[in-house]
């Protein structure tokens, strides 16, 4: 890529950042924090990136840092950004390799990559940023007809088995409310629900996991027996949203103390009109959203 060309002379830069040309030359000589190019006459020319960095350094000096401290902070920030970029690239490659293995029905390779992911990242990171992202991608590919039902079933089987093992390995806190987790009516795609369920299971909640769509009327039997604080429903396909919303209305009318959460690909793609009246039920897109929703819901008044 072509290097950015210098376009500001030292006098212009001095006026822009508020320091004397002699001070700027001394900083460059002592700390080598920037390297302005030279024109044919040998005069310094500074780029927009140089200006950005110099303004940042001046802001730190004005805040009470010495110039040497400010330069050290700048170097540290650069190293941190480089590390973050490297980690994100590694995460992306791992995610792509796992998706490719699943689409090739390569069970051994898929398990090796999942093991590698858990060795490199936290459980939450693997669940949300790798498995959760792959789940969404597979759902989209299936909806668009770019993969077969066999691909979707194979991927679901592999990921469900790994998530299921994890789910039963975490202790539960009997002081936390009970939770029922189920797919919405006519919804059979349960990986999203599994990932969300594992997230709350890790927090110690006692989760009764029902999985894919159960027979109409059975959910009331479960609620009467378990008496949970929360009911979480997942909806992946847009066509199933109307029945999910109808069920929420019916249950909120019948169970005044029940807090109902709704998530999944179809829910996350709803427009503003579709969300109207259901804002309090939407659990969100990521771990931060889920944390926030649960925290607010624990303090939520009855319906």
UniProtKB/TrEMBL annotation:
Taking every annotated instance into account, which residue ranges of this chain make up the domain HTH merR-type?
Answer: 7-76
Q: Which Gene3D superfamilies match?
A: 1.10.1660.10, Cobalamin-binding domain, Methionine synthase domain
Keywords from UniProt, A to Z, are:
DNA-binding, Transcription, Transcription regulation
**Residue limits of the B12-binding domain?**
176-303
**What SMART domains does the annotation carry?**
HTH_MERR (SM00422)
Membrane-traversing stretches: none
Molecular functions per Gene Ontology? cobalamin binding; DNA binding; DNA-binding transcription factor activity; metal ion binding
Q: Please, which domain of life does this record's source organism belong to?
A: Bacteria
Task: Indicate the secretion signal residues.
Answer: none
The record's PANTHER family line, in alphabetical order, gives: HTH-TYPE TRANSCRIPTIONAL REGULATOR MLRA-RELATED, REDOX-CYCLING DRUG-SENSING TRANSCRIPTIONAL ACTIVATOR SOXR
Q: What is the recorded name of this protein?
A: MerR family transcriptional regulator
């Amino acid at each position: 890529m072509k290097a950015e060309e210098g376009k500001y002379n030292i006098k212009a830069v001095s006026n822009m950042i508020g320091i004397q040309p002699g001070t700027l030359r001394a900083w460059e000589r002592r700390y080598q924090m920037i390297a302005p190019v030279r024109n044919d006459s040998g005069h310094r020319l500074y780029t927009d990136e140089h200006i950005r960095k110099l303004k940042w350094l001046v802001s730190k000096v004005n805040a009470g840092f010495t110039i040497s401290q400010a330069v050290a902070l700048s170097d540290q920030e650069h190293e941190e950004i480089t590390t973050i970029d490297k980690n994100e690239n590694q995460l992306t490659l791992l995610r792509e390799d796992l998706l490719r293995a699943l689409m090739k029905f390569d069970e051994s390779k898929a398990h090796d990559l999942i093991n590698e992911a858990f060795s490199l990242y936290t459980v939450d990171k693997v669940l949300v940023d790798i498995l959760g992202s792959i789940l969404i991608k597979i759902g989209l590919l299936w909806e668009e007809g770019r993969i077969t039902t066999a691909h979707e079933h194979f991927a679901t089987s592999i990921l469900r088995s790994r998530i299921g093992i994890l789910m039963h390995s975490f202790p539960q806190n009997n002081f936390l409310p009970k939770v029922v987790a189920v797919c919405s009516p006519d919804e059979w795609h349960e990986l999203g629900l599994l990932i969300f369920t594992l997230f709350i299971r890790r927090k110690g909640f006692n989760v009764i996991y029902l999985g894919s769509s159960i027979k109409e009327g059975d959910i009331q039997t479960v609620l009467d027996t378990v008496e949970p604080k929360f009911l979480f429903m997942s909806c992946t396909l847009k066509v199933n949203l109307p029945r999910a919303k109808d069920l929420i209305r019916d249950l909120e009318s019948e169970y005044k103390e029940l807090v109902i959460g709704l998530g999944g690909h179809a829910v996350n793609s709803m427009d503003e009109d579709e969300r109207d009246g259901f804002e309090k039920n939407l659990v969100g897109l990521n771990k931060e959203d889920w944390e926030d929703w649960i925290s607010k819901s624990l303090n939520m008044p009855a319906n």
